[in-house]
Amino acid sequence: MTMQDSGRDAAVSASEGLTIAGKTYRSRLLVGSGKYKDLEETRLATEASGADIITVAIRRVNIGQDPNAPSLLDVVPPSRFTILPNTAGCYNAKDAVYTLQLARELLNGHKLVKLEVLGDEKTLFPNMPETLKAAETLVKDGFDVMVYCSDDPIQARMLEEIGCVAVMPLASLIGSGMGILNPWNLSLIIEQARVPVLVDAGVGTASDAAIAMELGCDGVLMNTAIAGARDPVRMARAMKLAVEAGRDAYLAGRIPRKFAASPSSPMAGRIA
What we know:
By secondary structure, the protein is of the alpha/beta class. It has helices spanning 39-49, 93-106, 128-140, 153-162, 183-192, 206-215, 224-227, 232-252, and strands at residues 18-20, 23-25, 29-32, 53-57, 82-86, 112-115, 144-149, 166-169, 198-200, 219-222. It starts with 17 loop residues before the first strand and ends in a 20-residue tail after the last helix.
């Protein structure tokens, strides 16, 4: 079964947006809030990206924990953006669950969260046994869980069966900029999924984002690719356009690859 034949979104307009946990967002690009030189650059790049959902590392970013320090929410207000607290920096299920329970308190009962439980500091690869354990606890506690995971179709299906509202397989290592290293596994995850599939981690430039969307991903999340660019605001705008173009290309349906030429102008009915 091909991506075009699978029926997932085949009749859906690109303008309909991304629906997660019953809420529809205009943009299919999600962006992080870390690694910028200051809060003003964060604001400008976020606005240029057109993103509606902004991830926040609760253990690293002030969103009210310290009332005497500048808050990210001053430049990315919850009245305008959906804040997606994440568990970056957590290496076991217990810490991840505690971190998101804290975020819920800080954000007045906010339910939509991003779970990531890392395996080690060198690769930042997901620790899947601990991720599954944390996901089960959080879903039972009433959270809407979007989850960073390996590009393993079996693990992705297990997370969906637990009740996660979106699965977010890595394209390559976090912050590596290596792009999509295993499109075949992503395709397998997309074909079987009944929840949104978003590429998370490894995007380096606009073409990577477009390829993810052309494969049939429902969205892309990135931070380093924008914040680490020479001009983050310009790159944020490029990523916005790439995600939109990739989505349109997926819905349009690409021509098949073949080892033969095919003239652009038909030969039938030619004058001479």
